[in-house]
Amino acid sequence: xxxxxxxxxxxxxxxxxxxxxxxxxxxxxxMAVVKANAYGHGLGNVLPALTDADAIAVVExxxxxxxxxxxxxxxxxxxxxxxxxxxxxxxxxxxLTAVVHCAEQIEMLRSARLxxxxxxxxxxxxxxxxxxxxxxxxxxxxxxLRGSGNVRELVAMTHFADADGKHGVDWQLERFNxxxxxxxxxxxxxxxxxxxxxxxTRGGWVRPGIMLYGASPxxxxxxxxxxxxxxxxxxxxxIAVQNLRPGDSVGYSRTFIAPRAMRIGVIACGYGDxxxxxxxxxxxxxxxxxxVATVGLVSMDMLCVDLSTVSEAGVGSEVTLxxxxxxxxxxxxxxxxxxxxxxxxxxxxxxxxxxQ
Length: 356
Ligand SMILES: *Cc1c(COP(=O)(O)O)cnc(C)c1O
What we know:
This protein has helices at residues 11-25, 35-39, 43-46, 61-69, 88-93, 103-111, 138-148, 170-180, 192-197, 328-334, 339-344, and strands spanning 6-10, 29-33, 55-58, 76-78, 96-100, 118-123, 151-157, 186-190, 205-206, 232-244, 249-250, 256-257, 262-267, 284-287, 290-295, 303-306, 318-322, 352-355.
């Protein structure tokens, strides 16, 4: 038998979550964000479950080529657009939509000789201060792109900084609406949090990511409450048991000292599989459906849990690191990070089992 770790990718859950997104989107078109290898789930694995989406969005040209090779024919958006002029021929050939966010990209588009125009989303910086034109530049940018002869459909887009948090979206939405007024552009704004919480951000397109994978974007609302189901479940098994005496330590640096006699289960999963090394003692794991706590430092190939409360557990017992029965958000919170990072961090050595 091979090492028992596996990541199960449940496409039924993904279809369910896409339907939830579609429901919230109303008449807006849904662009499924599948960057970072579909948030670690595998772009090739998830594509068959996204036939109900109106478009997908990636970051690298290689991912777009991969999706087209796999037969994806709908609009395909590159969220950072193109990085050099020679990529533009590929945008034409593969009918890719480019996000255009800076003057350098406009210049590349203007001076290119394309055999066909491409679709463009103009990114407006409404407060994120990462990518995008200032709101007051939009009218000139629109004119320059329309005049280039190399652009077909134009959509105005922006990205929210705190749709999941206390600052909300209104401060950015005001700037966005002022910028597009009178320009007859369709709009594309909402990430998962905005889509779920602020219907006024729907516009012509919405761009959900994390919710499709079944994680809640909010600290105070569970995925279950939102009707979302986890797509990735990371499973492994107990491969050894240690009986500790009071005062014995566990793992590297001896960060955990047994306060009493304890049974410790050693699980075949470590940071070399994508489990966060920063998860402290006490991070949740489930074993036979019961919650147990990690003890000591996570190592590359293994981590340890306290088996004191699950006497029936032993070598071979199945363990869930996150997913079905243990929301990845809870593990992320314990480790001081977000669900996005844990999902994206899944390492290629972990076998993936796709369930249709
Ligand atoms: C990642 C990303 C999204 C999706 O965000 P979620 O919080 O995962 O829903 C949407 N738009 C852009 C520009 C992104 O980079």
